[in-house]
């Protein structure tokens, strides 16, 4: 499956990342964030923001695998690759909510400013 992206709507940095990811179909062709950083000179925080923008602003279903063999970013070739990415994202979101809960509990024990 080909994913269409209107290059004119992408920033220069988004274009550079898209050009790297755009032909990486399937998890077996994933590219790590370090490899993308080395090819583009974009730091990891900027890269995370660009991936988020490609996903949320430009509706590109950039998939990712964080652990094990073939970790990195890629375009999904099978629905199960999206399933795994969504499961990873949901797990990450759950952990962030756990952190927020701990902080809210700690806040209750502090005096008001």
Largest sheet: 2 strands, antiparallel
Mean pLDDT: 92
The value of Rg in angstroms is 17 Å
Strand proportion, as a percent range, falls in: 5-15%
- The name of the CATH topology is Arc Repressor Mutant, subunit A
Helical fraction? 40-55%
Question: pLDDT below 50 for ≥5 consecutive residues: which ranges?
Answer: none
Number of domains: 1
SS-based class = mainly alpha
Order of helices and strands: HHHEEH
Distance between the termini: 55 Å
> What's the CATH architecture?
Orthogonal Bundle
Number of strands: 2
Shape: globular
Q: Please, how many helices?
A: 4
Strand order of the largest sheet: 1-2
Tell me the name of the CATH class. Answer: Mainly Alpha
């Amino acid at each position: 499956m080909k994913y269409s992206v209107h290059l004119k709507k992408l920033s220069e940095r988004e274009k550079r990342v898209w050009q790297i990811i755009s032909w990486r179909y399937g998890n077996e062709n994933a590219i790590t964030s370090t490899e993308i950083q080395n090819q583009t000179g974009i730091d990891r925080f900027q890269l995370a923001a660009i991936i988020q923008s490609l996903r949320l602003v430009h509706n590109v279903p950039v998939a990712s695998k964080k652990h094990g063999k073939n970790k990195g970013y890629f375009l999904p070739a099978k629905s199960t690759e999206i399933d795994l990415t969504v499961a990873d994202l949901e797990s990450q979101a759950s952990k962030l909510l756990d952190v927020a809960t701990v902080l809210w509990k700690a806040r209750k024990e502090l005096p008001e400013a």
